[in-house]
Amino acid sequence: MKSLSKKALLLTAVVGTGFLFGTSHVQAATKAHVTTVSKKSSSSIKNTPLTKKGYILRVLDNKEASPIYIGKANYNRLVKNATLLKNAKTISPKKVQNIKFRVEKVLDVSKRVAGAPAYLVVSKDKKYSTWTTQSGLQYYYLNDKSMRGVTKPLKRIANRQDRDLKKANNKRDFNQTMKATKKLKGSQRSFVVSSLKKLQKDGMNDEGVNLLLFGLQ
User: Fold this and answer.
1) What pLDDT score does 206 carry?
2) Alpha carbons 22 and 28: distance in angstroms, whole number
């Protein structure tokens, strides 16, 4: 995919692919078709309960990654407008893989285009920030060795055509994730348990609001 000019507006929608656990298979979210959003999009920037989850996300380093802006001044500009900033200092996502981010704002464009919302994510000290979609984010500990027992069965469910947790295969795999979660410790265990309980209640098509699913590819 060709990079957008820095004179263009920020990519904010993943068109035609669905969410990670939407109507398409899990792999679809990694091939985002980028569109632009009107400057009036700032009116759609909203607060989100995801902020309360804290600093538990990683910005993925891939070919479609958004630039990471440096400095609190740039963060303050991004809070007001979901655009690619002009003459702003940036850093490659590759350089911030050990930095934890949280969701600050959400730009919901679903009513305007057939796409996914974008999220403003920021580091704890406000030094690094960017707007990106779900496919550009990941639960920070997702690939840790301690999480393998949780992620493997979840991936099996995600890659099935029918992800109804009442189905025998899905129910079996989901129970495996719950069993594996008991081996986790501290805040990580609490987060995963609450996320899985939400999945159990809302289903695997709970798009864009369960951070445990972010980056599960």
Assistant:
1) 61
2) 10
- Cα separation, 16 vs 22, in Å, equals 11
pLDDT of 31 over the 50 cut:
no
Residue 83 has pLDDT above 90, yes or no: no
Diameter over CA atoms, the chain: 55
Q: Which residue has the higher pLDDT, 179 or 116?
A: 179
**DSSP per-residue codes, the chain:** -PPPPTTSPPP-EE-SS--TTSSS-GGGGGSPPEE---GGGGGGEE--GGGGG-S-EEE--STTPPPEEESHHHHHHHHH--SPPTT--EE-GGGGTT--EEEEEEE--TTTSSS--EEEEEETTSSEEEEEEGGGEEETTTTSGGGHHHHHHHHHHHTSS---TTSHHHHHHHHHHHHHHTT--HHHHHHHHHHHHHHHHH-TT-TTS-GGGTT--
In this prediction the pTM is: 0.79
